[in-house]
């Protein structure tokens, strides 16, 4: 996959940095800072945005972000509280936010929480038809399911036809981290054309954020001014480690 000159799914994973600021000016300021520092992929986390209930406020931010992220892969994400986010909205409200992003012509990827969407396959197809790519995601902040369950979740995510599927889980042991990496590798071997992002969160799972690419994960997440999940390292640290691993 090639988006704005950035290759996803071949070699070194892209580093995606979330913007977690709450007001328009801070969101734009952080986006400009990240772009000027060479960030390849930016995720705007709408659940952190104080103006989320105003479609016009969201549109205004997107309009100003357009020229800023013209050469940067741009991901648009509402993360629900059940999936580790900061707030809860009805499924219809989230779908409206997704369509607003697709209509903007600015967003490259919309993150769709597979198990929170009422009809994830239909929503994925609708958004793709509107001209955006989709990341079908699932986050478990409590545990790492057994390997058969991990495999089942990945297969479910794949069914919706998203360009990228994403699974993040919380380890209770290093064995949990190894289980996720092995299931990632097996899935990647079986479905090499399906782009996949996986990560094991928290301090125990940090190794997966820099080693995941060797098992098939095409993107990793680094922290900007604020982290969006436990275990995220600063963007520059991750980039340095990846440069060494992939030199």
Account of the 3D structure:
The strands form 2 sheets. The chain has an 8-stranded parallel β-sheet. A two-stranded antiparallel ribbon has the order 1-2. Helix 2 runs parallel beside helix 3 (91-104) and helix 5 (147-159) packs across helix 6. The chain has helices at residues 24-36, 55-68, 91-104, 120-129, 147-159, 174-190, 206-211, 235-246, and strands at residues 2-3, 6-7, 14-19, 41-45, 73-77, 109-113, 133-140, 164-169, 195-200, 219-221. The model has no long low-confidence stretch (mean pLDDT 95). The protein is α/β, with parallel strands linked by helices and 247 residues long. It contains 8 helices and 10 strands. Helix 1 links the parallel strand 3 and strand 4 (41-45). The radius of gyration is 17 Å and the shape is globular.
End-to-end distance: 22 Å
Tally of individual helices? 8
Strand order of the largest sheet: 9-8-7-6-5-4-3-10
Low-confidence stretches: none
Instruction: Calculate the mean pLDDT score and round it.
Output: 95
Q: Would you report the number of β strands?
A: 10
Biggest sheet architecture: 8 strands, parallel
Helix share bin = 40-55%
- Percentage of β-strand residues: 15-25%
Judged by helices, strands and strand pairing, the structural class is alpha/beta
């Amino acid at each position: 996959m090639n988006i704005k000159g950035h290759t996803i799914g071949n070699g070194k994973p892209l580093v995606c940095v979330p913007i977690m600021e709450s007001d328009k000016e801070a969101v734009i300021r952080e986006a400009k800072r990240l772009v000027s520092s060479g960030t390849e992929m930016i995720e705007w986390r709408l659940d952190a945005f104080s103006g989320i209930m105003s479609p016009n406020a969201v549109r205004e931010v997107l309009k100003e972000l357009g020229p800023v992220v013209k050469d940067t892969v741009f991901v648009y994400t509402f993360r629900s509280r059940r999936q580790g986010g900061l707030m809860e909205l009805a499924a219809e409200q989230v779908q409206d936010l997704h369509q607003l992003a697709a209509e903007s012509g600015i967003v490259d990827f919309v993150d769709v929480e597979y198990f929170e969407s009422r009809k994830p396959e239909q929503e994925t197809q609708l958004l793709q038809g509107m001209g955006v790519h989709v990341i079908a995601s699932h986050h478990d902040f409590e545990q790492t399911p057994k390997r058969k369950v991990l495999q089942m979740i990945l297969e479910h995510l794949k069914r919706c036809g998203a360009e990228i599927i994403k699974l993040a889980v919380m380890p209770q042991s290093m064995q949990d981290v190894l289980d996720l990496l092995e299931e990632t590798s097996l899935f990647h071997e079986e479905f090499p054309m399906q782009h996949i992002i996986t990560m094991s969160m928290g301090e125990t799972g940090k190794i997966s954020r820099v080693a995941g690419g060797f098992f098939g994960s095409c993107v990793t997440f680094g922290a900007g001014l604020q982290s969006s999940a436990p275990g995220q390292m600063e963007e520059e640290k991750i980039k340095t480690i990846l440069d060494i691993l992939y030199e």
